[in-house]
């Protein structure tokens, strides 16, 4: 039972991390990254009774559903009944023939385990138990687990983050789109050569948003003769490869999907169509529009590219997954769909931390920011605070922007059209809001200065050149203020390069001085060069196992360097520190406080309730301004009216 122990070890690790996470949330109210743990690859002993390559996944939907429900129900019980164990038990009992399936067998299996009978005593006479357990764990092992997702709580669109244990893989068809299917795995196909159908077809209308079933890395995007426009995504544990084919002519993929991109389960990855059966690209040769979805197992790294491919019948699986469908919304200007509710799961963070941070910095930053933004551990309701009112404090929303860009191809969740920003400025002015700087808020708290009646802070992270190019003229036009938190290294680099590209350039010291002089922009500190995931460090956070004294020295030297540079170049001393990706450790705020910072900005969503207490200025909440929502819709959802 060597393998079994390994699997329990993995699960216990995750439980420990979640416990640790909860402790840290209690201790700091902050954000903590899940630690790294090595991704275990399976090795198979030679005494397995079957070769794993022979696997035939024919577990019926009813058995999957019942075993899953039992797993979820028992997740809080003393004896957690893992669905993989239940299904492996049934496979042994039926000698691999699931036509013998009876729901009663699961009931009696559960009853026996609940009487404290051990699993090993139940299966000790079955040599093939370990084989089935391995096989089913490879297929299903990541479908259930702990995850967090934004959940709507009322019609205004307010959301809370809820954490649960359950089905965390998604149906490939977005919520609200009808599909029809039947079990077509292994049926004959004749285009090209005579072969078997190694996937599952889901009949849908053209243009239906297609969603990633599981989180993973995009391994292949492009045309192939059979699949037309296709996407291949490998799960982060490298054990499953998902193939999505026949995507839409002219607009097959969601924006910014490239080889190497990391996607989360439930993300929109493309649009259904009827492309394929042609050596020529972008040709519709399939009669019935449908999504062809396949799952290929990869048992070890060496087998990945071999011809000995194991494809899984996904008919019953997709039916099970239809219990978990991703809700999406469209951005009219770009005709792109996005998921409505952010999601996070532990393995995603682990894999994100392993990404090579020297690759495409901007793209990676988006992905990494995505983790943190979707990792808000608080259970607060966005907008809920606005109902409160108290003489002692005031409500101060802080909006978070990053880049502004006109080219729709470059637009993402973090690079939005300048028109959103302009409309936001108009909306806020019309509703009596006054944009303020951090120094205004700090003066309110520290010296008793007054603030306008409805204050709001507009913050921009990373110091992109497009802030200067698009946001700055709008700030002047609408007489508004914004706070830009810069990454020192990039400002230094681009001050030398003098390359003004709205996509990737950062603002120079000259541009910074021009904006400060205008009175419309305040510059703050976003680290000199810690906007990275380097050597196990997440942004500016403490590394696991790092002693506090060395962390303090490390943080002070980087953040202090940017302080010096800003003072030297502008004559101003930044008062506020914005945490890269929102990563914070227990002692971070205190170290920054000792360095003289008066405030820190987090990526935790919500509206701040500020009393005249200097501590109220640390770990301030911010709300990401996403694309696809009008200013009225976006601000109303936050209670900004
Ligand atoms: Zn197909
Ligand atoms: Zn940033």
How would you sum up this structure, described in words?
- By secondary structure, the chain is α/β, with parallel strands linked by helices.
- It has three domains: 35-141, no CATH class; 149-354, Glucose Permease (Domain IIA), CATH 2.70.70; 395-638, TIM Barrel.
- The strands form ten sheets. Strands 5, 7, 8, 9, 10, 12 and 13 form a seven-stranded antiparallel sheet that branches. Strands 18, 21, 22, 23, 24 and 30 form a six-stranded parallel sheet that branches.
- Strand 14 and strand 15 (336-339) form a beta hairpin.
- Helix 3 (83-93) packs across helix 6 (129-140).
- It is globular and about 75 Å long.
- 46% of the residues are buried.
- Residues 1-53 and 348-391 have low confidence and may be disordered.
- Residues 197, 199, 201, 292 line the site of one zinc ion (ZN).
- One zinc ion binds at residues 461-462, 526, 531, 580.
Largest sheet: 7 strands, antiparallel
Number of beta strands: 30
Instruction: Give the CA-based shape.
Output: globular
Strand content: 15-25%
The CATH topology of the largest domain comes to TIM Barrel
Rg (CA only)? 26 Å
How many domains is the backbone divided into? 3
- Ends distance: 61 Å
Q: So, CATH architecture of the largest domain?
A: Alpha-Beta Barrel
- Roughly what is the average pLDDT, rounded to an integer? 83
Q: Enumerate the distinct ligands.
A: zinc ion
- Give the CATH class of the largest domain: Alpha Beta
The CATH superfamily label of the largest domain reads Glycoside hydrolase/deacetylase
């Amino acid at each position: 039972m060597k393998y079994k122990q390994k699997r329990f070890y993995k699960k216990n690790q995750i439980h420990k991390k979640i416990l640790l996470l909860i402790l840290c949330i209690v201790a700091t109210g902050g954000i903590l990254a899940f630690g790294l743990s090595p991704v275990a690859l399976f090795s198979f002993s030679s005494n397995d009774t079957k070769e794993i390559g022979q696997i035939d996944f024919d577990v019926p939907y009813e058995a999957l559903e019942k075993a899953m429900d039992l797993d979820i129900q028992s997740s809080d019980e003393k004896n957690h009944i893992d669905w993989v164990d239940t299904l492996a038990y049934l496979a042994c009992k039926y000698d691999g023939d699931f036509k013998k399936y009876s729901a009663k067998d699961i009931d009696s299996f559960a009853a026996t385990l609940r009487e404290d009978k051990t699993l090993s005593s139940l299966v000790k006479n079955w040599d093939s138990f370990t084989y089935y357990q391995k096989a089913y764990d490879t297929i299903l092992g990541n479908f259930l687990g702990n995850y967090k997702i934004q959940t709507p709580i009322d019609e205004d669109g307010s959301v809370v983050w809820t954490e649960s244990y359950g089905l965390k893989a998604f149906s490939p068809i977005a919520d609200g789109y009808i599909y029809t299917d039947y079990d077509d795995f292994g049926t004959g196909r004749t285009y090209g050569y005579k072969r078997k159908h190694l996937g599952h077809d889901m009949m849908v209308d053209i243009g239906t948003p297609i969603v990633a079933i599981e989180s993973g890395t995009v391994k292949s995007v492009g045309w192939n003769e059979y699949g037309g426009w296709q996407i291949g995504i490998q799960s982060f544990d490298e054990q499953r490869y998902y193939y999505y084919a026949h995507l839409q002519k002219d607009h097959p993929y969601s924006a910014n999907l490239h080889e190497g991109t990391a996607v989360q389960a439930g993300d929109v990855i493309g649009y259904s169509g009827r492309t394929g059966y042609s050596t020529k690209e972008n040709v519709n040769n399939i009669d019935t529009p449908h999504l062809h979805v396949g799952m290929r197992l990869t048992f070890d790294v060496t087998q990945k590219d071999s011809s000995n491919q194991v494809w899984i019948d996904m008919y019953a699986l997709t039916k099970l997954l239809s219990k978990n469908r991703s809700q999406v919304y469209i951005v009219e200007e770009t005709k792109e769909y996005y998921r409505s509710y952010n999601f996070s799961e532990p393995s995603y963070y682990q894999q994100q931390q392993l990404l090579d941070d020297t690759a495409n910095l901007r793209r990676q930053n988006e992905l990494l920011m995505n983790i943190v933004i979707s990792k808000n551990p608080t259970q607060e309701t966005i907008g809920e605070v606005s109902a409160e009112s108290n003489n002692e404090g005031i409500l101060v929303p802080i909006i978070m922007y990053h880049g502004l860009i006109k080219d729709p191809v470059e637009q993402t969740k973090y690079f939005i059209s300048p028109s959103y920003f302009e409309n936001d400025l108009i909306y806020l002015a019309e509703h009596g809001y006054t944009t303020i700087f951090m120094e205004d808020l700090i003066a309110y708290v520290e010296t008793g200065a007054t603030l306008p009646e409805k204050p709001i802070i507009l913050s921009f992270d990373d110091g992109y050149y497009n802030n200067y190019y698009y946001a700055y003229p709008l700030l002047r036009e609408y007489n508004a203020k914004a706070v830009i938190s810069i990454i020192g290294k990039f400002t230094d680099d681009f001050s030398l390069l003098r390359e003004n590209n709205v996509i990737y350039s950062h603002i120079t010291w000259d541009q910074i001085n021009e904006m400060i002089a205008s009175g419309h922009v305040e510059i703050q500190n976003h680290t000199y060069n810690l906007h990275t995931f380097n050597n196990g460090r997440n942004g500016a956070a403490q590394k696991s196992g790092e002693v506090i004294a060395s962390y303090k020295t490390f943080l002070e030297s980087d953040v202090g360097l940017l302080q010096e540079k800003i003072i030297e170049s502008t004559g101003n001393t930044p008062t506020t520190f914005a945490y890269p990706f929102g990563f914070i450790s227990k002692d971070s705020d205190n170290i920054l406080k000792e360095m003289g910072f008066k405030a820190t900005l987090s990526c935790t969503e919500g509206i701040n309730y500020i009393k005249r207490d200097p501590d109220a200025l640390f770990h301030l909440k911010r709300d990401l301004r996403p694309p696809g929502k009008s200013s009225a819709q976006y601000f109303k959802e936050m209670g900004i009216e």
